Amino acid sequence: MTYIVKPRLHHPKLPINALGYTHRDYEGSISTLCAGCGHDSISAAIIQSCFELALPPHRIAKLSGIGCSSKTPTYFLGQSHGFNSVHGRMPSVLTGANLANRDLIYLGVSGDGDSASIGLGQFAHCIRRGVDMVYIVENNGVYGLTKGQFSATADKGSKARRGAVNTDSPIDLVAMALQLGASFVARSFSGDKMQLVPLIKAAIQHKGAAFIDVISPCVAFNNNPESTKSFDYVRAHNDAVNQLDFMVTREAITADYAPGTLETVVQHDGSMLRLRKLAPDYDPRDRVSAMTYLQQRHAAGEVVTGLLFVEEDHGDLHEFLDTVEAPLNALGENELCPGQEALDRYNAAHR
Amino acid sequence: MPKPLEAVNDFVVKFANVNGSGSASANGLFAKSVLRMGVPASSRNIFPSNIQGLPTWYEVRISEGGHLGRRGGVDMMVAMNPETWDEDIAEIEPGGYLLYDSTKPLPKSKFREDIFVIGAPLTAICNRAYDDPRQRQLFKNIVYLGVLSALLDMDVAAIEELIGEQFRGKDTLIKPNVHALHLGRDWAQTELACPIGLRLERRDKVGERIFVTGNDAAALGAVYGGATVCAWYPITPSSSLAEAFASHCRRYRRDAETKKSRYAIIQAEDELASIGMVIGAGWNGARAFTATSGPGISLMQEFIGLAYFAEIPAVIFDIQRGSPSTGMPTRTQQADILSAAYASHGDTKHVLLFPQDPNEAFTFAADALDLADRLQTPVFVMLDLDIGMNEWLIEPLSWDPDRKYDRGKVMNYEMLEAGAEFGRYLDVDSDGIPYRTLPGTHPTRGAFFTRGTTKDEYARYTEEGRPYVANMQRLLRKFETAKRYAPRPVKREAREPTRFGAIYFGSTTLAMEEALETLETRGIHLDTLRIRSFPFHDEVFDFVASHERLFVVEQNRDSQMRSLLTIEGEVDPARLVPILHYDGTPITARFIVKAVADMLAVVTLAPLKKALP
To answer: Is the backbone of residue B535 left (phi > 0), alpha (psi -120 to 50) or beta?
Structure first.
């Protein structure tokens, strides 16, 4: 809907952040998704997160694949470069972009069809490489743009509008991300902004592969009460293991907490994650027990949300490759071309 | 009984071996020793898709006259593989020589009457000299090299010198190898009449030339051309390009102080991811490439269309191999011309470069990176297995110290700040090439959304017909502009005026040049044009127009270059006579001579309509 232009005018008393930007400066164009779509709430959460972190919008690159979720980068961060790539292949494009310039923030937005069906391979490999990025899957268990076919996260036994029954087992992307070595893994719900925004903020500040699976009900095709991706189901079965407060700097703890219910995690850049434990025995730094807990709750029909796993000093692909500090795209002839003398030596060695 | 072949510095030696038996090093020593004697030579490795056990051959063309293409036929066969014995024996020219391991007697029926058989008890010699079975096997290769050195009257000092260089740093290996060499050489000098009719004499005809593979040279070209990102997936015959890039980068691209890397190499999970990473890096302003072969090109199709339509620089080295499907993974062909030229669905056209040898592979690799940035589109460097994996004797590589990378039209912070109008797909100076911005450039200006869907000049999504058509027309203008930057064809006029012409490209060059000389001695004169890039320059069609009949020489079944010429130039196909060599081995001069002579006989004798295919 390029013909609908958002008015540039805004209320003079809109709050501004440290950069002097308002919330409006982080918006994109008007969404063309269905009214009530969970994805729009996620876009709003991304906008809020970037505003609150006072990130310069042009220092963020937003990348996506194909599908409803992959359309959303148009609807947030209008001053950021965006790349709507091909179906299921956002991870490779993001990886390449990240290699070219390590100084930008990379936000990958994908869906369950894009990441769990056609793009499962690329999802897996970019996670295991530790690409420094935020990878958000807007998970609704259904193909929206092609009108209601099952995705690979659809519940076994669920029924499509036209009567087809899904006989395949669903893929749990959170379990996969944990197994593949992601250093930041979270799950949230598009309807719970209080939970989602701090998670996105923490993921942005995290160095390495940060994965957030966001259950995002599809109001058009998959919001029936029996769907585990519906508003009603998630509200009824949401098992949040913790509540995250995200802080850019070390701030004094002012509220009172019962002993053993608060955990702090200092991230690579000094930012602090303060976790209020909701499940007393849950340890978000223990990958193996996180995986076990998830499986147990899943078997009980619960949807586990919150910051499920974090490893602060895991590192990222650039560290693993030991690349120079300067972005590779900023290097010129002087840094890159060895010159004729080196070529003379090469020639001499091949005679 | 024919006369034994007599030749000095002009013959073909072929080694028939078992893969994994350690023969490659001895055979390579032979070829390099010839070069050290100042005599031009080329080698071709004909190997199986296998690590151990299947047949492999190594063919060395020795030519003082400088003919380094494949000639066809074998003058001296070193037959070390019982499995391929019959076909190896059959390939020897009448009057040619056979060297074999005579430890076990063979029946007379296994030989030919019209060749000269030289038996050397290699296994017996090795069994006497060595106790360790592995040594017996490995040194057998050096022992036959010793026998050969005596038979061909080679300068043993040249071989010893090379052994010294080869094992520099592992000095304990030098002595035993030199010893094995002399075991064979001494035996031959005592037991056989040395030298035979084929002989090597020292000359000074190699000059400054170097002996390298195209993949190594292309990888070095990528280093010189400023590539910083390489994403690839292993596939024969392209893997050695990416591996060579890694090794060149370790040498040339480490920060002197910090030792950190000024490059990033990813071995991706598949070809889709490789090209995706290249496109992501290109979009973000780094020079990036992938190396692959036909099956990889098939897998990359969707992404290549995206890069064409969204206008993102990318360089793809296609080391062509025997096709279709898995085809002949270790054999050569030029069979990806059409699938590269029109890669992806819909109306697409891509820039292709056709290097003739490792020297041009080096140059074109760097050129391709400039072209991709300048034209904001994928550029293919069309190598093949023959260039990529065989060592060629070529002019030394050179680099213009004043050369600057052409980064193309990138609108930077200053331009945006100065208020330059930015439309990502706006053709501001009528060459079809728009300006782009890189992510992160300016806080409020120049951001845009890249997509594979249709868009207007300001990168806004649209499904309207008019901007779509205008954009498609601009892409055609851009393709036309590519001709200004891509390497022009090379024309050569025959010594006498002629109605006939020949068009060729890539690794066919050496065989073609030799064939032309031979044809000339038979009174057949051809003007020639070597195509070096696609889109075709006007000279190509002028050349076609100025000849009555043209041979289009290529290494595939379906005369793909001929098709491309007829499609793009609307040339009457009847005027283009295909000469096609596609059995997986490199084309030979003899093949071209025979095909041209046969065709000309038909063309000039029979009514044209009946005679032409």
So the answer is: beta
